[in-house]
Write a structure and sequence with these properties.
4-stranded antiparallel sheet; elongated; 7-stranded mixed sheet; about 120 residues; about 60% strand
Length: about 120
């Protein structure tokens, strides 16, 4: 039906940068708010950043000034530019999208499988 696939996770040294991508595919009529979430071992999943269809953004305090979320509506793709990475950023990063699959239905929440980001000190 709908798939979200993340990519770009890797092992990086403290202070380094990564760019994550999330591509949505399948039966898509419209994509509304999209977001990045992360889950570290033993912790709950937490919000990293969200972006509306018209590119209004919201960030967790812990990543403000270091991470930048963006999207390309024509490509059904969302990005997360992560700079000045710190060991506490280590987590599995998940993509989420509020997606309408038909003009006849409302939107539903879809999740990707996640991509691992590991920051070494």
């Amino acid at each position: 039906q709908v798939q979200l696939v993340e990519s770009g996770g890797a092992l990086v040294q403290s202070g380094g940068s990564l760019r994550l991508s999330c591509v949505a595919s399948g039966r898509i009529f419209s994509i509304y708010t999209m977001g990045w979430y992360r889950q570290a071992p033993g912790k709950q999943r937490e919000l990293v950043a969200t972006i509306t269809r018209d590119s209004r953004t919201n960030y967790a305090d812990s990543v403000k000034g270091r991470f930048a979320i963006s999207r390309d509506n024509a490509k059904n793709t969302m990005y997360l530019q992560m700079d000045s990475l710190q060991p506490e950023d280590t987590a599995v990063y998940f993509c989420n999208g509020q997606i309408q699959t038909s003009i006849l239905t409302g939107s539903n929440s879809f999740w990707g499988q996640g991509t691992q980001v590991t920051v070494s000190s």
